[in-house]
Amino acid sequence: MAPLLEIEGLCAGYGTGTVIEDLSLRLRAGEVLGLLGRNGVGKTTLLKTLMGMIPPRAGRIFFDGADIAGWQNYRIARHGIGYVPQGREIFADFTVLENLRLGNLDRDDFSDIFALFPDLAERRHERAGSFSGGQQQQLAIARALVAGPKLLLLDEPSEGVQPSIVAEIAEKLAAITRKRGMSIILVEQNIDMALGLCGRIAFMEGGRIAEEHNTAALRADPAPIERYLGV
Hints:
Blueprint (H helix, E strand, L loop, with lengths): L4 E10 L2 E11 L4 E5 L6 H8 L7 E6 L2 E2 L5 H7 L1 E4 L11 H8 L7 H6 L1 H5 L10 H13 L5 E5 L7 H18 L2 E5 L3 H7 L2 E6 L2 E7 H6 L2 H7 L2
Parallel strand pairs: 3-8, 3-9, 6-7, 7-8
Antiparallel strand pairs: 1-2, 1-4, 4-5, 9-10
């Protein structure tokens, strides 16, 4: 079976600086992949390049049967990639419903989303800016899900969220992948969340994928975690 996502020789960056250089990676349908590494190695840049927010300088990005490298981000979203950026970037002055509608203008029924996130259902008419960090993160994920993505890109979803809500978010994401067969690429500094949710971890260094390991192997031997995340 062909991979859902296949990246070959990807290069990208900002201005004259190169951040991603000759990066290759594969992802199967329904797989949850953790993308770990120290700050500045290119994790967020990779997600933004996959989402069309940064144009690739070289390489190919095959997703669901199409080479999407260089596509505009709205076209990539319609082809099945959702993105939850670091810092959430919800619309604070908009209600829950208004935020969700912006995730998919063709939808009016969000009952499936509210079944996943009952806290959002109870506060659907309230402004999102009044929510806690955990509730805002749930809303950001929910907004990405309303378009029914085949691949969800998550950048630091545990940032600024209390541990109990982090565990709840991880449980919901695991349930979504089982039910929908959706794939996830998770950029995360919370090792417990990454090991609990992901089946495989790719470590980035110097703009490339340095090593890949399944999470069972990393639990047995956490040396790669220390190698790529230790100070």
